[in-house]
Amino acid sequence: MTSIDIADPGFLMLAVPAVLIAGLSKGGFGAGAAFAATPMLALVLTPHQAVGLMLPLLMIMDVTGIRAYWRRWNWTEAWPIMLGSVLGIALAASVFAVTDADAVRLLIGALALGFVGFEVARDRGWRPAAPKGAARLRGAFWGATGGFTSFASNAGGPPVAIHLLARMHDKTTYQATTVLIFWWINIVKIGPFLSLGLVSRESLAAGLWLAPVAVAGMLLGVWGHKHLPERAYFLLVRTLLAITGCKLLWDGARGLLG
């Protein structure tokens, strides 16, 4: 397994901007683009190390976000998603335990490109209509989907966004609700991550060095929620995701096909 060398310039060149982007997204732009950190780290680490390194950092960001958006969330919309996420996390943990690194690279790469496609479609005017009836059941379904993808590659943002964007129009309530949901999801993930060995002493040590970057990114995101244009930020993130997604798909396919 690749070691995590915090003194390696190649690691730092990807890890610092990856964590900063994750903090900016979780702090002010709906959490979706926080997924960019995992594909970027998976270029220099194994996929298992990448998700393991990010989880404690995401939890630090969650605490910062909960304080910044305290009680501004919509609990009625949040709890079915939070409940459904537990099932998705349990399913992902059982699959993840028997999946090799190249298959996970393929999954992360596909999710990266899928997220870019979802965001571009939304920019072009697609907004999911809010169906009538069974809102809690739909919330639980998208919560389970988000829990699964969050466990596999910290990519829970898009499934949750698909549901919440159809039901919320106030950006601060939407932002606060995503902060609450992913605070919960990341807490639930920590047990399975530890049992599978995804969080190690090595990843915690590297995370400790990156923790100030996580907090700084989160605080910048909270500030940016009020002051910065989203367009330029998301254009950069989507470009990075498209590039890293293609690279991971190539690496995963090459590894599986030998």
Mind explaining what this structure looks like?
- With 258 residues, the protein is mainly α.
- The chain has one domain.
- Helices cover 77% and strands 0% of the residues.
- The protein has helices at residues 9-28, 37-41, 47-68, 75-96, 101-123, 135-153, 157-164, 171-195, 201-227, 230-257.
- α4 crosses α6 and α6 runs antiparallel to α7 (157-164).
- The two termini are 18 Å apart.
- The mean pLDDT is 82.
End-to-end distance: 18 Å
Helix-strand string: HHHHHHHHHH
Biggest sheet overview: none
Unreliable segments of 5+ consecutive residues: none
- Tell me, what's the shape? globular
Q: Helix share of residues?
A: over 70%
User: On the 0-100 scale, what is the average pLDDT?
Assistant: 82
Strand content: under 5%
Helix/strand/pairing class, anyone?
mainly alpha
Total helices: the number is 10
Radius of gyration of CA atoms, rounded to a whole number = 17 Å
Write down the domain tally. 1
Number of strands: 0
Question: What are the defining features of this structure?
Answer:
258 residues; mainly alpha; 10 helices
State the gist of this model:
The protein has helices spanning 9-28, 37-41, 47-68, 75-96, 101-123, 135-153, 157-164, 171-195, 201-227, 230-257. It is an all-alpha fold.
Helices and strands, with pairings:
Blueprint: H1 9-28, H2 37-41, H3 47-68, H4 75-96, H5 101-123, H6 135-153, H7 157-164, H8 171-195, H9 201-227, H10 230-257
